[in-house]
Amino acid sequence: MDNFGENCFRYVPVRPRDVHWGLYVTGAGCTRIPPHVPYPPARHPELYDFTWSHGRTLPEYQVVYITNGQGEFESGHTGRQSIGAGTLFLLFPGVWHRYRPLVEHGWDEYWVSFSGRVMENLREEGFFLPENAVVHPGVTGVILEPFQRLLGRLRDEAPGFPHLMAADTMEILAAILAAAPTESPAMVAKGPQEITAFEDRVVAEAMRLIWGQSHEPMTVEMVARQLPITRRSLERRFRAVVGHTIHEEFIRCRLERATRLLASTNLSIQEVAVAAGFASTDTMGRVFRRLEGTSPREYRSRHGRPIENQ
Q1: Does one domain contain both 136 and 210?
Q2: What is the CATH number of the domain that holds 215?
């Protein structure tokens, strides 16, 4: 499987500085399970050991990537699902689960356990959810290569390896997100979907133009001319795919930009309105009161963080 061996794993002592880094790896491994061999392999700590009849609940996250063979996975959020080569599943702390290769097939697996406030933030923001734990990216170097790098770092223990393993884990998570077929409703509500999520390429291009140019004066006619398509056809297709109008998407984009600037910069309210693409501070204020239930100034007071003077 890689130069760390066909059946290897190691658990990592976690230092306070690793926790403060925001994401830390607690263990990783790669295992080849031939047909008719008991699963899981022996010698794992009690925390990680489990049986199919009882399943398991972890206090941390874990990614398991199957690169060969067949099996099954089950959790309280996903139900039981078939697993094949190129399937990946994400385990969540506090969520019961179980998985195993089919006896007649066996499987090859890579896995990494990790935790930290970075992952908690990603989960809270809806990037990763227990009901979407199973992803089918296929057997791809985009995921396999960071797994192999991570295992090499774990073997060599060169200076800085805990933080470098955290970076490898983030690369794996980014690849998982890219492989997910759709974004969660929570993420769609926060901003634009990935362009690849839209099968209608005209709508995808319209979305790219809106989020790339809406800091400037923009109308539906201006978007339609750049595609090119008639305004009526664009509005009809956009609403059918996205579920709301192009004008509403303008507002969502400008509001997202304004809230970010209010929370993270010391720009004046007028400067924020201009940078976000609003026609005036009054226009921005009306949007904030309608959609956020507060004024821009009050939003900054609640959500902003102190900005050091330059």
Answers
A1: no
A2: 1.10.10.60
Contacts by residues 274-280 (CB-CB < 8 Å, ≥ 24 positions apart): 275/215, 276/215, 277/214, 277/215, 277/216, 277/217, 277/218, 277/250, 277/253, 278/254, 279/217
Say if residue 130 is in the same domain as residue 195. no
Cα–Cα dist 197/205, whole Å: 12
Give the model confidence (pLDDT) of 96-154 as tens digits.
999 999 999 999 999 999 999 999 999 988 889 999 999 999 999 999 999 999 999 99
What is the pLDDT confidence band of residue 195, given thresholds at 50, 70 and 90?
low
Q: In this structure, are 57 and 175 located in the same domain?
A: yes
Asked if 183 and 207 touch (Cβ cutoff 8 Å), the reply is no
- Residue 1, domain member (yes or no): no
- Is residue 267 a part of any domain in this protein? yes
Encode pLDDT of 51-63 as tens digits.
Answer: 899 999 998 999 9
What's the pLDDT at 199?
76
71-88 average pLDDT score:
95
Domain that holds residue 173: 7-182
| One domain for residues 152 and 203 | no
Domain stop point among 165, 182, 199? 182
Statement to judge: residues 154 and 293 lie in one domain: no
User: In this structure, are residues 237 and 257 in contact, taking their beta carbons and an 8 Å threshold?
Assistant: no
Decide which of 152, 182, 212 is a domain's last residue. 182
Give all strands (DSSP E) within the chain, no chain letters. Answer: 7-11, 24-33, 61-75, 79-84, 87-91, 97-101, 107-115, 134-135
> Rounded CA gap, 198 and 183, in Å?
11
Return the pLDDT at 41: 82
Q: What is the DSSP letter of 163?
A: H
User: pLDDT band for position 306 (50/70/90)?
Assistant: low
In 3D, which of 244, 220, 243 has the Cα closest to residue 233?
220
Residues 6+ positions from 88 with CB-CB distance below 8 Å: 63, 64, 65, 66, 134, 135, 136, 137, 143, 176, 179
